[in-house]
Specification:
30% helix, 11 strands, six-stranded antiparallel β-barrel, 8 helices, alpha+beta
């Protein structure tokens, strides 16, 4: 009952699915009990959680809101059993001393939205510098401009809506961010990337935990680092500019400097970039 009351207070008018709160609270308490029983001497904990496609059919809800609450309390949780995503979030939590989130980085900003709400209003960002950072509903409420606890629209296309409840939806608050990730290749070689940018104060007109992100030279960075280096679609987000520290952390834990990607300026070509393009 105490956790349900916490959730009700945090959600306020955004509590659109009150019938699922008891299940969510039970899941949150179970995770916290498991953490306490297994963390041993460790001060910090991170969780790589299962979230779909089986979770909702087995338990009757989705865990996104619980993930967001744990992240806001210093226990980052990655979606889709993303172990290196959880490790990346953990690094971001320690560096920023703040909540972090994990978002899909492969969603473009519609051209009409860019033309109407972004072009010429926020410096010199081009359409290729922008993208939508999105996930179903895992971002902490304190990092959203407004929030509602609803259902997962993607899952509800093939499943009954009542088993997809539990996402925290809202536009992510504008401000400075660092997008980053640590990853291992199949032959155990560590790679990483770091890019600083911002979330723009632009309404997304979409669902889930989502924001309009702008990173200088994002298009080239996406092509020559994220795609060519085979990074997954999840990227960790720290709320602030922490590129300098994260770069040093990656070096310290053994990532070769040639394997730490960043959003290179126009006058600095990537190794595979055609100089005549």
């Amino acid at each position: 009952p105490a956790v349900v009351a916490e959730m009700e207070a945090e959600l306020g008018e955004g509590n659109k699915k009150p019938e699922v709160l008891a299940k969510l609270a039970q899941y949150e308490l179970t995770l916290k009990d498991w953490v306490e029983a297994h963390k041993g001497y460790r001060k910090y904990v991170a969780i790589a959680g299962k979230c779909w496609p089986a979770f909702q059919t087995q338990f009757g809800f989705v865990p996104c809101y619980v993930n967001s609450r744990l992240a806001s309390r210093g226990i980052p949780v990655s979606c889709e059993v993303d172990i290196y995503g959880a490790l990346s979030e953990f690094i971001g939590t320690v560096v920023s001393q703040d909540a972090v989130t994990l978002l899909d980085i492969n969603n473009s900003v519609p051209a009409d939205l860019y033309e109407e709400d972004i072009k010429g209003k926020y410096g010199t960002y081009t359409l290729k510098d922008t993208f939508m950072g999105f996930h179903c509903g895992n971002t902490a409420a304190c990092k959203l401009t407004a929030h509602e606890m609803k259902y997962q629209k993607i899952m509800a296309r093939t499943l009954p809506e009542e088993v997809t409840q539990g996402t925290l939806e809202g536009d992510i608050a504008p401000g400075d961010i660092t997008f980053f990730r640590l990853q291992s290749t199949a032959d155990t070689k560590l790679r990483a990337y770091v890019a600083q940018g911002e979330i723009l104060p632009v309404a997304t007109r979409s669902f889930g935990s989502i924001g309009v992100f702008a990173i200088p030279e994002m298009g080239r960075f996406y092509r020559h680092v994220l795609i060519e280096k085979n990074f997954p679609h999840h990227g960790a987000v720290a709320f602030g500019h922490f590129g300098k520290t994260l770069y040093e952390v990656f070096k310290y834990i053994g990532v070769d400097v040639d394997e730490i990607g960043f959003n290179q300026p126009k006058n600095m070509l990537y190794k595979t970039e055609n100089p005549f393009s």
